[in-house]
Design brief:
single chain, 226 residues, alpha+beta, 5-stranded antiparallel β-sheet, 10 helices, 43% helix, globular
Length: 226
């Protein structure tokens, strides 16, 4: 996915993202957890955890590209309050109970920062890919619940994201069915489906290449419709 990014001197490979996420998780209260293999609502590659504990929930996110931290944190602003705070590094952030944050150590090679730079606007391609993976995530959840059902607005989405619906069904079909159906909470289903995220995002990249002329103006059209 790096070809869609703002130039980044030090993109993080998957193994590094997993290591950093594991180190952050080890410092947080985590009686139960969901593993995230990708971000199902944002274009960039991500690894992380949702930790559930009587002390409070914690959310660990580690991204391939440094710009993603500020961009994604904008969507989490409303979750912060007197009992919850955020810590971050150049490629990662943790949102969790304020009482747990003093125990959080900097991962090796990824120090905690005092501030995060202002978020850069997404490029039209990043905006397109973000909308595409969000469609893919919604379709993956629908497909698990009702695999024989009709895809809502199929013609519209087939035009906007060609071949992505088929890629979603194929990627979800490749997952361990027991691991998906055993999810105890519908709100936690998306984490179980996130292992399909890289395959869906690759299909989104292919769709972006197939509709290149439309992608160039996608961000402007999206902004106008908001």
């Amino acid at each position: 996915m790096s070809r869609t990014a703002t130039p980044d001197a030090h993109p993080l490979a998957e193994a590094e993202r997993i290591r950093i996420a594991d180190e952050l998780r080890s410092d947080l209260p985590c009686r139960d957890e969901d593993v995230w293999y990708d971000d199902m609502a944002f274009w960039d590659a991500m690894n992380g955890f949702d930790c559930f504990d009587p002390a409070g929930a914690s959310f660990i996110r580690v991204y391939e590209h440094a710009d993603s931290v500020a961009q994604v944190l904008q969507d989490w602003d409303g979750t912060l309050g007197t009992d919850r705070s955020v810590a971050f590094g150049s490629h990662w952030f943790v949102i969790g109970p304020r009482s747990a944050m003093p125990n959080l150590r900097s991962p090796r090679g990824a120090p905690q920062l005092e501030s995060v730079s202002a978020a850069h606007p997404m490029t039209p391609t990043q905006d397109y890919l973000t909308t595409c993976i969000r469609f893919g995530a919604a379709e993956a959840q629908r497909f698990v619940r009702d695999p024989e059902g009709r895809v809502p607005d199929r013609k519209q989405y087939s035009t906007l994201f060609p071949a992505v619906t088929r890629a979603v069904h194929r990627a979800v079909g490749d997952l361990d069915p027991a691991g998906v159906t055993a999810v105890p909470d519908a709100e936690r289903l998306l984490a179980a489906l996130s292992a399909a995220g890289p395959s869906i995002k690759q299909a989104c990249v292919g769709a972006a290449e197939a509709t290149a002329g439309d992608v160039d103006t996608f961000g402007e059209a999206n902004d106008a419709g908001r």
